[in-house]
Amino acid sequence: MIAVExxxxxxxxxxxxxxxxxxxxxxxxxxxxxxSFRTWRLCTAQGSFLVKEVWESGPPYWxxxxxxxxxxxxxxxxxxxxxxxxxxxxxxxLAQLGDLGAFKVYEWLEHSPLTHDxxxxxxxxxxxxxxxxxxxxxxx
Length: 140
Known about the structure:
Elements: H1 8-20, E1 30-34, E2 38-44, E3 47-55, H2 63-78, E4 86-87, E5 95-96, E6 102-107, H3 118-133
Antiparallel strand pairs: 1-2, 2-3, 3-6, 4-6, 5-6
């Protein structure tokens, strides 16, 4: 069991894991990368997950865009475009968790260096073509 009292990272781990039904955390979330969104690796009794913080605290003015992007991502997954599996609670893959903020959760993928070859070119071309065929709503 991980310590929670006074440990914001551990408390956030427990809240996210419980909300998305990911099992009991085995450790506090570990920062992974911070580009446009903060992300962490969350390890639980059920496996490893990528947790993305879409915004801190309350919804910002651009929250509608985030929900539209989430719906587009799901449509892409539904038509067979290979993207990491997303997790949802109550059919909501983007969830506001009280004052902690809004989060999305994906399966954890172990990465390896890319090989620049024809397989990569074929995958990239097919993926982009599939994304461009999807209808999307305005993200405003």
